[in-house]
Specification:
Blueprint (H helix, E strand, L loop, with lengths): L14 E5 L5 H13 L15 E5 L10 H4 L1 E5 L6 E5 H7 L1 H11 L5 H7 L2 E3 L13 E2 L5
Length: 144
Amino acid sequence: MKTYSQKASEIQRDWLVVDAENQVLGRLASQVATLLRGKHKPTFTPSLDGGDYVIVVNAEKIRVTGDKANQKIYYRHTNYPGGLKQTPYKVMLQKHPDRIIRLAVKGMLPRNRLSRRMLLKLKVYAGPEHPHTAQQPKPYALKG
C-alpha cells in the first residue's frame, strides 16, 4: 500500500455557507478552520491548500461564553512607539463583526504562507445576505 498524496490539479473546491447565528465563537472558528484547511476531506494533504471556500453569514449574531463579552480585548499596533491600540469586544462587535470571526479563524490556522492563502477563501458578512449566489454555495450544518 502506498500513501496517497493529492496533486494540485486534482483539488476539488466547494462553496459552503455557515450561519453564525447563536453559535459560540471558538467552536465556530475551529470548524471553519477545518473546512478552509481541507481536513474534512479524505484527500487531505498538509502541504496543499485543498480546502473549500467558506461564507459565514450573520456574524453580528455570534456569541461568546462566560464574561468574555465584557473582558475580551483585541490588540493591534500602529508600528510607532507607544502605538498599541486596544478595542473591547463589544465595540468590535458593533463596528466590525466580520473581523471577530476572521481573527478567530486566523488564530486556528497554521502560521505559514499556506494559511494566508487559506484565509483568502474565507468570506464573512455581518448580515444574512452575501454576494456569492452565482457560486451556488451549499449550506453547511455545524457539528455540536
